[in-house]
Amino acid sequence: MTATPDLVDRYLAAWNETDPGARRAAVDALFSADARYTDPLADARGRDAIDATIAAVQAQFPGFVFRPVGTVDAHHDQVRFSWELGPAGQDAPIAGSDVALVDADGRISTVLGFLDRVPVGA
Which domains does the chain have, with CATH numbers? Predict the structure, then answer.
């Protein structure tokens, strides 16, 4: 399965979805059952853990939204992209880059996340 830039839009939409039921539906549609999300602060395995990780980030940064930065680079079964997290319409204090791998069904199987900018104390 070829990864596409559209996958990034759906991925960031899942991170921005604050309704628990809608967020879980997005996670179920986007991630494989045994998907793994890992970054310097989290290592989540499976949809339940990924959903809980998203909910925890939303609780830690209420009102913040993820938005893409720059160009999405996709080929074969992988996509690389950068993002920022901050209040809507304002400068974002947090930024990162992710690489996502998709399985044969077009669902994300792995996300490798990197934090490029994090404020002290976050």
Answer: 5-117 (3.10.450.50)
